[in-house]
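> call design_seq(struct)
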């Protein structure tokens, strides 16, 4: 296994004394599709800014394909492309100029750079705008331009800071397809997001960061697999006064709604068979929340108790 990114003991204290990162350890494998997930203010962008030296770290080390960012920054930098959360190119240049300038920093020949830019503009839906001034681009277009710029030196790792925040559904889908495609072609992809379902459906690995600390770091499949308790909401055909006797954890929410907690191994047939015996007919069913979701909601709402409980439950389940 080749390690694409190794972060160890990473700390950041800003000039005003604020401790944004309290010691982060993280490893991303080559080829991975990795989510750094966390609510606003968790420290995601701080990590990303350190990786591309927009911010100096206070302590710790970062290696990119073995190259230490302190000792061998040019090499480390050549391996990564970073699309920042905020647009930071000139508003009076065109997308083509922005990408060609960036290529210049890497010593890429102009015809090569122009061909790459054209390819990426087409794939990102920016083709029509490539020769317009950036100030005429929408927010979503600016975001995509940051990605095209990050890709011009064809980095081994592409890092995207909140690539889909605030985008409409259609654009978000385009972004998902683009990222998946880039990753399939062999680029290690790291994105930050505060959308749980995005990390869950798109990424193979998830690290959850909260207030400058990593609370979870594992494979998505493992995380979802271990989080085995789910609550189902059952909609009944007819009102119900009293709960029937049950071997399952059945609760009455209102006259026509029941909730039941099920584990991975619970046979849903058995639940339904039991209800059937009591002449209770179910006409609808949906998932309420998974434990993963309650963990994340706890983080977002700053609900310390539920966060701690869920984090404890998760790490106990994951055996770490
Ligand atoms: N330049 C700065 N000076 C002081 N505090 C900062 C600075 N930049 C970010 N912070 C604080 O550090 C924390 C983490 O910020 P950030 O990394 O941007 O979080 P995220 O990207 O997860 O939303 C936040 O509380 C933020 O207010
Ligand atoms: Mg951020």
């Amino acid at each position: 296994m080749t390690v694409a990114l190794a972060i160890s003991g990473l700390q950041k204290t800003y000039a005003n004394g604020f401790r944004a990162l309290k010691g982060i350890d993280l490893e991303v494998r080559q080829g991975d599709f990795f989510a750094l997930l966390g609510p606003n203010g968790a420290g995601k962008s701080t990590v990303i800014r350190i990786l591309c030296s927009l911010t100096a770290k206070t302590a710790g080390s970062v290696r990119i394909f073995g190259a230490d960012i302190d000792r061998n920054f040019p090499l480390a930098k050549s391996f990564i492309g970073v699309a920042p959360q905020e647009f930071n190119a000139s508003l009076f240049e065109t997308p083509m100029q922005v990408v060609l300038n960036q290529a210049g920093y890497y010593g890429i020949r102009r015809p090569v750079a122009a061909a790459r830019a054209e390819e990426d503009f087409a794939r990102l839906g920016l083709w029509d705008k490539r020769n317009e001034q950036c100030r005429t681009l929408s927010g979503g277009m600016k975001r995509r331009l940051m990605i095209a710029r990050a890709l011009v030196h064809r980095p081994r790792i592409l890092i995207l800071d909140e690539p889909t925040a605030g985008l409409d559904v259609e654009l978000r889908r385009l972004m998902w397809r683009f990222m998946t495609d880039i990753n399939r072609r062999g680029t290690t992809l790291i994105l930050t997001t505060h959308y749980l379902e995005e990390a869950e459906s798109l990424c193979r690995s998830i690290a959850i960061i909260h207030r400058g600390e990593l609370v979870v770091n594992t494979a998505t499949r493992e995380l979802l697999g271990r989080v085995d308790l789910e609550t189902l909401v059952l909609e009944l055909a007819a009102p119900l006064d009293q709960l029937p006797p049950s071997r399952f954890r059945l609760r009455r929410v209102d006259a026509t709604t029941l909730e039941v907690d099920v584990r991975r191994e619970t046979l849903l047939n058995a639940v339904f068979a039991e209800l059937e015996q009591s002449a209770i007919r179910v006409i609808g069913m949906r998932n309420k929340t998974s434990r993963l979701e309650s963990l994340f909601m706890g983080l977002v709402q700053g609900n310390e108790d539920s966060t701690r409980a869920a984090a404890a439950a998760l790490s106990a389940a994951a055996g770490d």
